[in-house]
């Protein structure tokens, strides 16, 4: 979740808060903002990714004004015309077809405000823009730009001075060597031509979505800002433009439209249109469990900075463009709850009666756990994902039907899905060699079963491990046998069977009613040596799914 | 054999001799029996005439502890002490450290090291001493030293054959054993000890240290006295079979759900993206679906994308379908939905149950299971952890009722103060985070999330009624209850921790 730093004094000033600023900290959580930390008057606030307007103080102040009852209804901003035009060339269509622009005037930007705008820009890049793939934004000092501006494509050898650089770079060079190019180059996909914004004097505004040009850099004192928003999704481009426009207006700017001229069509941006949505008050009360009047609902929506009117038995809600997180009636119902205040909603204990039930497999595993604990074993829990070394090489095992491996793990410790539990237990024994012996441990867990032909299954297993100076095949066999007596009142048969990590001639399959239910035996000394275990170890692994089935049929 | 009853003084003298088959001097005997020398002389004559005593002149050997012996009784033999220091140090220690921590004289240190090397218990590589195996048999030596210490002085006849062999060994180590010669007139019994005992037994007089099956069987317990025990003496630890704390708390959570009438659902850790993400209205370009966050497995498939709902879900993503939503507005890819992953939340299980049970008017189900995130594990994040999830489907379900379920459920987990703060989840609306007050910390902590499933989730599954949902991490609860600050502790399987964690810590 994104985080911003807010200065409580600035926030208090924006909402005309005249009592203790610290009290604001108790209100912010009811806007859906989490206080991460407080240092002096600086608060780190975590906000939801569906509210990019909270990336600046202004967005938070607008909502705070609402629930404090100082301002009601939707934010309204006029967009005046301008003669700034973005001419869109044919070439961008296959690479990055959409663009919007905003001209904001009447500002005198301080360093703090520039930082805030960049913070918002970054948030939009990450969230709405999906790491710049869907949307990227360029902020320019409009006084350094000569319209009309062409949104066109260039070859890799086209040269310009990137932002923060002192010489000309070729586009290819930016993509291969500049940190921004390396980081965001992939967002362009496969292409030989690159999108570029240049003004009428062929000065480069930006190479979207990689980097801006240096000529149009925004510096403190700037009064007129030109914003370009490019992307691969028109809806997202306009989403981002609306949040930027509203924030600039709240900062005190006068908004002017930018005409986007394609070969055959022209549109004005930013789009700050209003969407109307019907809301049924009965639905509000049904979902929230309240009995609000139409007027109370309208009042709550106004406090949530939306506009609403009663229209017969329904309400008509008007949603400003930047609130594109509202996509369904339920989103409006949540806005009612915000406006009303969650702190005023009380739990209802009118709960409905049903009978509870556990899964049969849960109860079976509980029985197994009780039985094995009764035999003196300590339960351990290892992870389903493990490393090749732990699962195979240290065990002297070869993957029989191939391995199940996750893609792109961040740690090789969590890479292979276990197909048996015993290796995990042996590693537990290995990490506990300084603990007092005897060690008798067990695990109940899930393993994957490669069923071949790309099909996979899962199974529940029990594994036990016994380690002390006199542990032996006999002891593990006694343990397994008493477990069978507890569960089924029967004794299984044992058929010699050798596989790693067990010793040749000292392991067996456990068979009952011609079903193979598991394996037991002594662990091979080479495996113990590799794990630095200095006492003999005997182990067993049982198929709990098969056992559960047999237990069920016994009754 | 004995004519007539024994005189009490005779019994006293014989009792003094029971434990001293090698005999005592007249003076010793008088002292041990607690009688005057003159009396002793007389009684000895009586007993001689009964044929119960012999008197002879000879030399006897006895042993007392030397300085090193006394110290070994207190602190163990040097080789034992050195080995313990080594094990405490993790089986590996620098020689200089060992010298310092050992606090032994040079001779003692050298002798101790010599014995450890000789027995193959340690290896020395350069300046490093490494533990190999506990091969020294010091306990029998220490036991004998203790016995001599307790008796202050021991006579050779009091030792059995094995003890004599050990004594012989100890005598070769300087300062452990001081032998002494006693020359004089000795009185010694002419009967074996047990026969002598039978003669002098009196109710409640003979003291034994432990009951034996024989003593119980032959009724002697009626005539003996069990010695008192130092009840403060430390005893060996026991390590019984125990369950992992995660199992303990899973059961507690299951019990809470059961008592509220919830039914358990289970399912695989391998799931399709369809159920894990698409059904939950998570757009296909959502960052949570990146390889960066989620474990995918390639080259395998699951037959688990039901044809009756796949189009509903796809259309809902694209344009909202009939759910009343605008949708996400992108082209949904059915192939992407078929990718296999390790489930990232247990909501995948409850939402599947919701679909399977869609014709039931009232559904209350829960699940507890492992989930997987492609992260670097640290004190606060685990790659694998357990999630707890509950849902309620009912035509009467609403947000205040959800608050009621939550308050009741958390009360059963031990959290009596609960409040709710709004938040955002992609598949619920409204969405709230659950804040609980932890009295020990005097703080409100976020402990779970809840909300009402979006219609974009429920309607494609054929579910029209509201569905309340909540979820939380099991490990957080266990950590709070056990006062653990590093989540990795729960899965490092250190036996000392697992054996020592107390059941009532919560």
CATH superfamily of the largest domain in chain A, please?
A: Bira Bifunctional Protein, Domain 2
User: Any guess at the CATH architecture of the largest domain in chain B?
Assistant: 2-Layer Sandwich
Major beta-sheet overview of chain B: 7 strands, mixed
Shape of chain B: elongated
Helix content of chain A: 25-40%
Largest interface: A-B, 92 and 99 residues
Cα separation of the termini of chain B:
71 Å
Assigned CATH class of the largest domain in chain B: Alpha Beta
Find the structural class of chain A using helix and strand composition. Answer: alpha+beta
Helix content of chain B: 25-40%
Tally of extended strands of chain A?
28
Task: Tell me which oligomeric state these chains represent.
Answer: heterodimer
- Rg of chain A, rounded, reads 33 Å
CATH fold annotation of the largest domain in chain A: BirA Bifunctional Protein, domain 2
Estimate the strand proportion of chain A: 25-35%
| Average of per-residue pLDDT values of chain B | 89
Low-confidence parts of chain A: none
Task: Give the helices and strands, then pairings.
The complex is a heterodimer of chains A (555) and B (506).
Chain A: E1 3-7, H1 8-14, H2 24-27, E2 34-39, E3 42-46, H3 57-67, E4 79-80, E5 85-88, E6 98-105, H4 111-126, E7 135-141, E8 149-154, E9 159-160, E10 169-170, H5 171-177, H6 179-184, E11 194-198, E12 204-207, E13 211-212, E14 225-231, H7 234-250, E15 254-261, E16 266-269, E17 274-279, H8 281-288, H9 294-303, E18 307-311, E19 314-320, H10 329-340, H11 360-374, E20 378-379, E21 385-386, H12 388-391, E22 416-417, H13 422-430, E23 439-452, E24 455-467, H14 473-488, E25 493-496, E26 502-512, E27 515-523, H15 525-530, E28 537-543, H16 544-554
Parallel strand pairs in A: 4-15, 5-8, 5-15, 20-23
Antiparallel strand pairs in A: 1-3, 2-3, 6-14, 6-15, 7-14, 8-11, 9-10, 11-12, 12-13, 15-16, 17-19, 18-19, 21-22, 23-24, 24-28, 25-26, 26-27, 27-28
Helix pairs in contact in A: 1-3, 4-7, 8-10, 9-10
Chain B: H1 8-18, E1 24-25, H2 26-33, H3 37-49, E2 53-65, H4 67-75, H5 78-88, E3 92-94, H6 95-102, H7 106-118, E4 122-125, E5 128-131, H8 138-151, E6 154-155, H9 161-171, E7 177-189, H10 193-200, E8 206-208, H11 213-217, E9 224-226, H12 245-259, E10 263-264, E11 270-272, H13 273-278, E12 296-297, H14 307-319, H15 334-337, E13 340-342, H16 347-356, E14 363-372, E15 384-393, H17 399-412, E16 418-422, E17 428-438, E18 443-453, H18 455-458, E19 467-473, H19 474-482, H20 495-500
Parallel strand pairs in B: 8-9, 10-14
Antiparallel strand pairs in B: 1-7, 2-6, 2-7, 3-5, 4-5, 11-13, 12-13, 14-15, 15-19, 16-17, 17-18, 18-19
